[in-house]
Structure formats: C-alpha cells, structure tokens
Design brief:
Layout: H1 3-10, H2 23-37, H3 42-63
Length: 64
C-alpha cells in the first residue's frame, strides 16, 4: 500500500467485530474498566485503549 493511501486511511473509521470473547469477560471489562474511566461507553474506551497501546509500542520501538 502506498504511503499516501495509508495516510488517507488513518482519517477514516472502520467498524470491526471481534468474535469469541466470553460474555462474562465483556461484562467484567465494562464494569471495571469502562464505567469508572469512560462514562461515555465502551466504544470510546476501546479507542482510548487502542491509542494508548499504539503510543506505548511506538515508545518501546524508540528505546530499542
């Protein structure tokens, strides 16, 4: 994929579905992670967790 095409993709949203996550895990995640830290709901929580994970990985790459 060309660099220009990659940059263009970052500005768009993608709907994803993750299968085979146990219901009780989703419930616990919602109760203990989402509600206390992200009252706006699970979607913003997932986005924030993804951003945090990417940022941490980028920082780890710089350290190596």
């Amino acid at each position: 994929m060309s660099r220009n095409k990659q940059k263009k993709l970052y500005g768009e949203s993608v709907n994803i579905t993750i299968y085979y996550i146990p219901t009780e895990l989703v419930h616990e995640f919602s109760e203990y992670v989402v509600k206390p830290h992200h009252p706006g709901g699970i979607s913003p929580a997932i986005k924030n967790l993804m951003r945090k994970a990417v940022k941490e990985e980028k920082q780890n790459e710089k350290k190596e």
